Amino acid sequence: MIMSAGRYCLRTNVDLLKPESVPEGEDVAATIPEELSEEEQEHLRKELEKVEEEIQTLSQVLAAKERHLADLKRKLGITTLSELKQNISKGLQDVASTNVYKKTSETLSQAGQKASAAFSTVGSVITRKLEDVK
């Protein structure tokens, strides 16, 4: 969604969340009106400065949250290795609970039972033949 404001266009925050809505490279030059008044340029500069400050603040908050997360994990004794083990275990449980896994497991079990029965029959036949030869 593009909202007109004077001689230039402002995108709503919702649009900025979509990567395709933010022009890059040569597309930027194509989207900037050729003539902006001093007032419009000053407004855009202030907005740019504000957004840069917000990004810096968010980066600092994220870094602080990551440190806090690491501290909590350390206090709880959660190591990278234990997290990896837990993730693998959960992944295996997820796979084992799928219908595809269950059907494959049942099919392989049935095939194993049939193969076992066939080997048993072959063994019985061979035993009988050997007894007949004696």
Structure description:
This protein has 134 residues and is mainly alpha-helical. It has three domains: 35 residues, no CATH class; 43 residues; 56 residues. The chain contains five helices and two strands. Strand 1 and strand 2 form a beta hairpin. The longest helix has 39 residues. The radius of gyration is 34 Å and the shape is elongated. The N terminus is likely disordered. Keywords: Coiled coil. Belongs to the TPD52 family. InterPro entries: TPD52. Pfam families: TPD52.
The number of distinct helices, counting runs of at least 4 residues, comes to: 5
Terminal residue distance: 93 Å
Structural class of the helix and strand makeup? mainly alpha
The helix fraction, in percent, is over 70%
Number of domains: 3
Biggest beta-sheet profile: 2 strands, antiparallel
**SSE topology string:** EEHHHHH
Average residue pLDDT: 82
Organism: Pelobates cultripes
Protein name: Tumor protein D52
Family: Belongs to the TPD52 family.
GO cellular component, one term: cytoplasm
Summarize the structure.
InterPro entries: TPD52. This protein has helices spanning 13-16, 26-31, 38-76, 80-96, 99-133, and strands at residues 2-5, 8-11.
Topology of helices and strands:
Layout: E1 2-5, E2 8-11, H1 13-16, H2 26-31, H3 38-76, H4 80-96, H5 99-133
Antiparallel strand pairs: 1-2
Keywords for this entry:
single chain; 134 residues; mainly alpha; 3 domains; two-stranded antiparallel sheet; 2 strands; 75% helix; elongated; disordered N terminus
